[in-house]
Amino acid sequence: xxxxxxxxxxxxxxxxxxxxxxxxxxxxxxxxxxxxxxxxxxxxxxxxxxxxxxxxxxxxxxxxxxxxxxxxxxxxxxxxxxxxxxxxxxxxxxxxxxxxxxxxxxxxxxxxxxxxxxxxxxxxxxxxxxxxxxxxxxxxxxxxxxxxxxxxxxxxxxxxxxxxxxxxxxxxxxxxxxxxxxxxxxxxxxxxxxxxxxxxxxxx
Length: 204
Prior knowledge:
Elements: E1 7-12, H1 23-36, E2 41-46, H2 66-75, E3 78-86, E4 89-90, H3 92-101, E5 120-127, H4 132-146, E6 155-159, H5 176-198
Parallel strand pairs: 1-2, 1-3, 3-5, 5-6
Antiparallel strand pairs: 3-4
């Protein structure tokens, strides 16, 4: 059972701006639908639709859209990063998000704990090439570094046959393996977020 007050923000790190369809966006929204079955309110943000500037600061100035997105991230109990695979790695947009999150490493609460310590994170990956586990590992390490906690089996993915052009969004139905993995990842993430909200990490 999860706390109905839990909030999740899903940052979709596709390279394709709206209204172009996106496999990462599709998987991200499926995750949002699954979270709703656990009474978790979700909001989805397609990062490339906003002027998120490069850098490792909280506000890079001159129209930087990150501060407004950051407020959503800080207000959420759960962060989901949804990324495609490009050249065997997370998208450049995903890397930019991780770099902007790096600014939170120096931010603490009134008990001197990092501000992201009591938040859970989940990872979603799509691609028509291999490398999903490698991408999950890269993103998980970055999220852990800035303070997020990753639950057991806290990721979901789909990859198509190597060197073929079928995308996740081209499928007529969601593969059972991916749907089942998404259900487990969402359930475990919501459970972990509830526990962290009830029993925060101790102050140093």
